[in-house]
Amino acid sequence: MVLDRLAAGAGRSARITHTEHLPPRAGTHAIWPDRIRKEVLAAIQRAGIDHPWAHQAAAAEHALDGESVVIATGTASGKSLAYLAPVLSALLDGSQAPNGRGATALYLAPTKALAADQRRSVKELAAPLGHAIRPAVYDGDTPVEEREWVRQYANYVLTNPDMLHRGILPSHPRWSSFLRALRFVVIDECHTYRGVFGSHVAQVLRRLRRLCARYGADPVFLLASATSADPAVAAGRLTGLPVKEVADDASPRGELVFALWEPPLTDLHGEKGAPVRRSATAETADLLTDLTLQGVRSVAFVRSRRGAELVSVIAKERLAQVDRSLPGRIAAYRGGYLPEERRALERALHSGELLGLAATTALELGIDVSGLDAVVIAGYPGTRASLWQQAGRAGRAGQGALAVLVARDDPLDTYLVHHPEALFQQPVESTVLDPDNPYVLAPHLCAAAAELPLTESDIALFGPAVPGLLPQLEAAKLLRERPSGWHWTRRERAADLTDIRGGGGRPVQIVEEGTGRLLGTVDESAAHTAVHEGAVHLHQGRTYLVRKLDLEDSVALVEEANPPYSTTARDTTAISVLETDTEVPWGDGRLCYGSVEVTNHVVSFLRRRVMTGEVMGETKLDLPPRTLRTRAVWWTVTEDQLDAARISPEILGGALHAAEHASIGMLPLFATCDRWDIGGVSVPLHPDTLLPTVFVYDGHPGGAGFAERAFHTARTWLTATREAIASCECDAGCPSCIQSPKCGNGNEPLHKRGAVRLLTELLRTAPPPPQDAREG
């Protein structure tokens, strides 16, 4: 067995903390709805598919009934065919319409690569249907001379939410014939639309629906998602429509052996003398090397581009020591590669010429990779949905397969490899988004008004926050009310008010100092921590040092370098309560949710060795403070609770700080966020609550829905936090439990045992269900 051979090395077997065996599953066939055109069924049969799986037929039935539907089944379960069958059938019907153009369909993908991949799939499947199906990609890479053809003649347009927001909707008169005939909108990988990005996409879709209605169309939305909790609820929040749900996966699956793997402790010591584990990157490179030597076709998923390149380089070096011909059988695969490079890698993996890839999530989002025997996941990818999406890449041809999750030195990863039930006995997360966030909604109201004047009838479409926002937009001289509605008043494009993937504000341009070449941009909100003077910046596998950050002109000047370290910004944070929306008693203390203002000041940065994480030094910075109005969850404790927990004034700050760090690290298990999406502050005596208080807040203006999720899952979230700290084998705290890689205070002060006692007392008085009825 592959896993037995991986575990055979010295000390290897002790690194496997749990092995889960998922049994094979037989498939269940059904019959396509009889309303699908015979020519489409014949084309599907030519592709080698005689009968659909039951979930494919069910989703197609909803689509043909005019019901929006989300299909939330596993990787390689045939979701694409479930929506393509009714879409191609409608387009074929429309091609024979007397008006010539006939029906149209729009496909939205989160990445350009996935849209291009889908176009190839559609062309292959629809080839027997001739010129009746005319798919075309319309994105930022589409040549200008092709764009007019796409608008005039394509009936299946594949794009992304960014292009819909900036290119298609503002130019809707030129798209009028396409929008007038729009029957279906396909939203692929819809579980990726979460947080602030998902909230922006939700408003872009409302603008699309409004313009379709203007042209007399009412398209059906077909959504494809990785398995997730309450997919119909999330899809309804995204589209603003009632959505049917198809979540019973009827496709077959081979046996999957899933191992949880914890790298060993090293002789190195980190901050405050804390023990340091071997990095997940180095451990993953070893596993990929061993799998390649066994002839096992594998993919290692790594969270960063640099990490993917590093795993590939280390694995190649180790293979070269065994056989000079072997390094050529390993490659890196990530965003930033040219399409022809990406295609060549996929072909080489399919053919067996390549045995292993070190890949970023560019490979996770639906790119067609089949026939893999093993997947290694370097660090928990942030959500159970992504974990299963990545693990599902192994065994796609129905054979047995292996998946290995390699834990990073991080509270959540450490907790998961010692609590397998949190992965294997829990449903995947709900997708969290908040379309009513005023920081998201306001620029989209402006964009909508620029497309067509806003009227009273639009208020229901855009949500209950609209009446309160319109007067503010008028006062800011962005909109003007006239008898025909609210009009956009500026000469510039309203769609440029917001970057739907960013946090607002003018992006900072990253420019190579010697050549003047623009390398990319970073959100204004992230500039102080990401491109401060002296920061290490990665771009397409190359490393740069930031020489100067000009905040006035929004430019960071960089030069190529190869320092042996990475950089981490240090900051101080203060928080004030603006409004408490909800609060519940926790014994004498309280659990609250509401609006806060966060003042953050980046004061220095650390240099850490790349391979070990060892701190090499700290450099002061001179940057202005920044303020953020957002949403937070917070809890307070009283003197009596502190006495019961044996928390003296000397250790109170450290106990609160340790609990705050660990709770931030654990929140991604309960809300679809990354620890970098959220922040925290702990205060022994907060001026607004007049009590010891721990805050956890959304790191986005107006909030992203994560703090609200934390409030509703507080009991299970903080129980898991306490367990993560208590079960860690270190003495006084380490990166696996209470130390944070982004702590603004250099992980000072921290008190591990105090945090355990404090959380134990807090949870002892936590309210029972149904107060936390929305947990899970």
UniProtKB/TrEMBL annotation:
* Ribonucleoprotein is among the record's keywords: no
Q: Which GO annotations describe the biological process of this protein?
A: interstrand cross-link repair; nucleotide-excision repair
Keyword RNA-binding found: no
Top-rank taxon of the source lineage equals: Bacteria
- Please name the SMART domains in this protein's record: DEXDc, HELICc
Per UniProt, residues of the Helicase C-terminal domain are 283-439
**Record's protein name:** Helicase
Q: Which organism is it from?
A: Streptomyces fulvorobeus
